[in-house]
Amino acid sequence: MSSEPRTEALDPRVLIVCGSPRAHGNSEVLAEHIAKETESASAVTEVVRLRELDYSSCVGCELCRDSGKCSRFTDGMTPLYDKIVEARGLVLISPVHNYNVTAWMKAFIDRLYCFYELGYPRPGPWRSTLSDQDRKAVIVAVAEQTEVHDAGFTLEAMRLPLEALGYEIVDELLVSGVFDKGLVSSLPDALSAVEAAGHTLTQALAR
């Protein structure tokens, strides 16, 4: 992965990252519905299920400050870096775990640190190598609780890092009151909302 900024036009590809540890659960159902919508709009789409990957959390070694890539680990995250660069659209979906994203999603987000170019002395100037490329994102949180405040920092924990990396968040959703495995499949309003978010994303990528 090069640290040089991409200047050529990027295809309207969409990468959907699901941070749930549960197979075929509500987060994956929502990911599949978004994928169906983006694919129907002719956007090449891939769904990544973080539970299927073997990868380490960022350890703060900062080797990437010099190399422009994660030089500490070669693991399940490694092939995702090129996919992230190639996809101008990004969707993050996470259940609410203890008022925040899951550990799988947090580790994924932390490993995106290698996309920053950081100056000295510390703290110094910084920029994202993904910025200024018209990148768009959608974030989705899935909560058992029905009260918005019980979702805690989940949406914020996805929104702020993506904005810092150079993404415009075109839609964000909290799907609440859902816990039983696959229950969201029987909730037409929730499915319509995520499909609409997928439509919003592809429309934004087409501009």
Secondary structure layout:
Elements: E1 14-18, H1 26-40, E2 45-49, H2 64-67, H3 78-86, E3 89-95, H4 103-110, E4 116-118, E5 126-128, E6 135-142, H5 154-165, E7 167-175, H6 188-206
Parallel strand pairs: 1-2, 1-3, 3-6, 6-7
Antiparallel strand pairs: 4-5
Helix pairs in contact: 1-6
Structure description:
The protein is of the alpha/beta class and 207 residues long. It has a single domain, classed as Rossmann fold. The protein is 32% helix and 19% strand. The chain has helices at 26-40, 64-67, 78-86, 103-110, 154-165, 188-206; strands at 14-18, 45-49, 89-95, 116-118, 126-128, 135-142, 167-175. Strands 2-1-3-6-7 form a 5-stranded parallel β-sheet, with helices on both faces. Helix 1 packs across helix 6. The protein is globular, with a radius of gyration of 17 Å. 36% of the residues are buried. Mean pLDDT is 93; it is low at 1-8.
CATH superfamily: Flavodoxin domain
Count of helical regions: 6
The number of distinct structural domains comes to 1
Rounded to the nearest angstrom, the distance between the terminal CA atoms is 27 Å
Strand order of the largest sheet: 2-1-3-6-7
Note the overall shape: globular
Task: State the major sheet.
Answer: 5 strands, parallel
Instruction: Return the CATH topology.
Output: Rossmann fold
Average pLDDT figure: 93
Helices and strands, in order, run as EHEHHEHEEEHEH
Give the % helix. Answer: 25-40%
Top CATH class: Alpha Beta
CATH architectural group: 3-Layer(aba) Sandwich
Strand content: 15-25%
The value of Rg in angstroms is 17 Å
Number of strands: 7
Task: Determine the structural class based on helices, strands and strand pairing.
Answer: alpha/beta
Runs in which pLDDT lies below 50 for 5 or more consecutive residues are: 1-8
